[in-house]
């Protein structure tokens, strides 16, 4: 009787527990990143951020989380090399989940915005290289993922820089900033709805039975963008100009208009984050389930059971509610001072980058992307606007993440091998 047939039930229970623990870590650390700009710019309260995240993280994970899950599950370690010993893949994926989850617990307690993607990819590479041999790791795939960790913050930073410069030019430098804000903010609102809808519809909804052509997706996205723009306009109409003695240019009124827009970008960011980062918790869990259910046959193309994405979404939400406030403070107020207009540019840039990556199946770091976007906005205002000591701490915590995930994973891999093997 094979080890998998003998201990199958235990493996699935452990995988569900560790997967939920990992999803909790994603919620405590990464979702807090996603909501940090909205809370830091005072566009929404922490309570509102949690409600938005609960709904949209879950929807992102369930509707658009399938592509990246496939990469995490079978794209980093070569499954073909494990066909003789499928139990090694089970030990490895359990070790990777537990290792990454423990590191996220430590980082969240310190308030460091680390990358959950780094944690899980580092953990999978660690057990693959040491437990199975260097040739078991798909190094070219790991290279692509690693390069995306550099490209994604640069891309998000550039988009945020350009967006914020456009806001400065079109609105803040006009002779009537408040009127300009009311004119142009609906266009930005349309952009938020259109971009997120377009990438989600073109790439992510086959596993819920919606397979649309590019043309259909484009039309639906235009429609969704228009509906969101209409909602934004009706909310903006309630904002009346308020005269304040300390506000000669009326900029505080402009920021109130952007506050409405930040609600939509917060929803977009939560959806984008759920679509990319649920895979970090769910990918290894799905791998264990498919190996156990097929009695040791390794099929990296097996469908992810729907309840696995639900378990991941639920864990993320639980992590945010119980422990997310510390990292929200670091991202929202630590790097640079954020207002709704700056927060909007950073969040939309990060959401666009993340949703694009989810569509191509690249597990990029939401943390790096968002911090890159916040830096881009800070740079648009000049170097003096950045808090370099906080940035230094963040970069240091990023550098520790890969070796920490890999080291813990190797330790747990040999522990599981000793217990069950």
Structure description:
The chain is an all-alpha fold and 421 residues long. It is built from 14 helices and no strands. It has helices at 3-40, 46-64, 66-74, 86-110, 116-132, 139-172, 177-203, 214-236, 251-293, 306-323, 325-334, 340-360, 366-380, 388-420. Helix 1 (3-40) packs parallel to helix 4 (86-110). The chain starts with a helix and ends with a helix. The mean pLDDT is 79.
Topology:
Elements: H1 3-40, H2 46-64, H3 66-74, H4 86-110, H5 116-132, H6 139-172, H7 177-203, H8 214-236, H9 251-293, H10 306-323, H11 325-334, H12 340-360, H13 366-380, H14 388-420
Q: Please mark out the parts with pLDDT under 50 across 5 or more consecutive residues, or reply none.
A: none
Structural class: mainly alpha
- Return the average pLDDT rounded to an integer: 79
Shape type: elongated
Proportion of residues in β-strands: under 5%
Report the sheet with the most strands, covering strand number, pairing sense and barrel closure: none
Give the gist of this structure:
This protein has 421 residues and is mostly helical. The chain has 14 helices and no strands.
Short key terms for the protein model shown above:
0% strand, 421 residues, mainly alpha
């Amino acid at each position: 009787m094979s080890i998998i047939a003998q201990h199958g039930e235990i493996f699935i229970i452990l995988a569900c527990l560790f997967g939920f623990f990992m999803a909790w870590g994603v919620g405590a650390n990464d979702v807090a990143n996603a909501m940090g700009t909205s809370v830091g710019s005072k566009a929404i309260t922490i309570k509102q951020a949690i409600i938005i995240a609960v709904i949209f993280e879950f929807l992102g994970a369930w509707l658009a989380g399938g592509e990246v899950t496939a990469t995490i599950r079978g794209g980093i370690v070569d499954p073909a090399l494990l066909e003789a010993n499928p139990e090694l893949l089970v030990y490895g994926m359990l070790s990777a989940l537990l290792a990454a989850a423990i590191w996220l617990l430590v980082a969240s307690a310190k308030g460091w915005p680390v990358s959950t993607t780094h944690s899980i990819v580092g953990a999978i590479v660690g057990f693959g290289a040491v437990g199975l041999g260097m040739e078991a790791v798909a190094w070219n795939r790991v290279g692509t993922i690693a390069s995306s960790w550099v490209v994604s913050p640069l891309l998000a930073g550039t988009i945020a820089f350009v967006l914020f410069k456009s806001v400065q030019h079109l609105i803040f430098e006009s002779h009537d900033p408040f009127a300009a804000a009311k004119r142009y903010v609906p266009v930005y609102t349309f952009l938020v709805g259109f971009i997120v809808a377009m990438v989600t519809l073109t790439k992510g909804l086959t596993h819920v039975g919606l397979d649309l052509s590019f043309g259909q997706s484009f039309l639906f996205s235009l429609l969704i963008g228009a509906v969101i723009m209409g909602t934004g306009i009706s909310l903006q109409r309630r904002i009346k100009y308020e005269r304040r003695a300390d506000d000669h240019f009326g900029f505080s009124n402009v920021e109130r208009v952007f506050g409405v827009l930040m609600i939509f970008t917060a929803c977009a960011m939560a959806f984008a984050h759920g679509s990319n980062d649920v895979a970090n918790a769910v990918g290894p869990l799905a791998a264990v389930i498919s190996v156990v259910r097929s009695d040791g046959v390794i099929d990296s193309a097996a469908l992810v059971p729907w309840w696995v994405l639900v378990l991941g979404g639920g864990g993320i939400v639980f992590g945010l509610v119980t422990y997310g406030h510390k990292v929200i403070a670091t991202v929202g107020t630590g790097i640079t001072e954020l207002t709704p207009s700056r927060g909007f540019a950073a969040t939309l840039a990060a959401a666009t980058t993340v949703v694009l990556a989810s569509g191509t199946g690249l597990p990029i770091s939401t943390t790096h992307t968002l911090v890159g976007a916040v830096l881009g906005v800070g740079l648009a205002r000049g170097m003096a606007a950045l808090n370099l000591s906080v940035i230094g701490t963040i970069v240091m915590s990023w550098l520790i993440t890969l070796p920490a995930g890999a080291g813990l994973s190797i330790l747990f891999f040999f522990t599981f091998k000793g217990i069950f093997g």
